[in-house]
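HOLO CASE FILE
Compound: KG4
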Amino acid sequence: MQNLNIYILAIESSCDDTSCAVLHNNRVLSNVTANQKIHEQYGGVVPELASRDHQKNIVPVVEAALKNAGIAMNQLNAIAVTRGPGLMGSLLVGLSFAKSLSLALSIPIIEVNHMKGHILAHFIDDGEVQKTPEFPFLCLTASGGHTQLIKVTGYLDFEMVGETIDDAVGEAFDKAAKIMGIPYPGGPLIDKYAGSGDKSKFTFAYTRAPGYNYSFSGIKTSFLYFIQNHVQKDKNFVADNLCDICASYQDHLIKVLLKNVRHVLKDTGMNQLAIAGGVSANSELRRQVKALEHELGIETFIPKFEYCTDNAAMIGITAYYKFLNNEFADLSITPMARMPI
Ligand code: KG4
Ligand code: ZN
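Model generated. Tokens follow.
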């Protein structure tokens, strides 16, 4: 018999966002995230600075999440926390905090894989009616650290179909932005500038990877050479063509992402596609994924913006299904910088 009155406090600190959510069963009551601005000037996340900021932010973020949810600590049934994958120092802050809270409140701890969290964000109930995928479905999870094609056969059953063999697509966005002098994280800004650009203006190289895998490292390098070549001839090239460059490069990355998606859907006969992870916030990706409904006769599932990028609600929903399955962690667990799905 399932316990249908579960309160979970979830903590996410795998990269540069400190987030805490409170859930009642699968319903999110609060989801508070502190973003770290400090990395903007460095063109990427500086691990040492990220863990320091988590240390500063975690107590106020947890307090705010409990306050917004109107829940007291003694009402909680479990603490959920991201164990990996992510930055070691960042994960350590969240995990140590979660362990202390679990000990202090004498309630169990539930460890969550960050990438599973991104996928299960599709099952978060935030009070608004929203269609959810049925099993099995294909999920394209695209973030700053990962690019994966996952066959999801149950809330806790995942099968890797393809993944990047080098860089993640989010990194291909962020590095291109850095090359053009756009601050970190560049993905959202490339998305913004692309909105006023011509996506057919420039073309970029395609790279090959075996099976349904991806490779973005060559695309990133070809972008660097493309910019260097043009700037040699015209030092104002980037400024004069920013929107067209962003639109063309973004469209190229999306075409690469969706090429394998089409193959997998055709080859497996799966007829539902979900997207997840930070890059699923990209407006052009969302548009092109939606267009696949008509093109392939499939159903697509696109998360709300707030559940695309890192957040603790996705950790909480994953923990809820683990709670129902009696999957609790031992207090001796340590963070995992790499963690298979
Ligand atoms: O999932 P996420 O918040 O953190 C990781 O787990 O990595 O993803 C962050 C990534 C960054 O690379 C960021 O540039 C990218 O998601 N991103 C976007 C957009 N919003 C976030 N990329 C393209 N377009 C966006 N609108
Ligand atoms: Zn993430």
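CASE NOTES: Residues 137-303 form a domain with the Nucleotidyltransferase; domain 5 fold (CATH 3.30.420.40). The pocket of KG4 (ligand 1) is lined by residues 15, 143-145, 170, 173-174, 185-188, 191, 277-279, 281-282, 309-310 (CB under 6 Å).
CLOSED: yes
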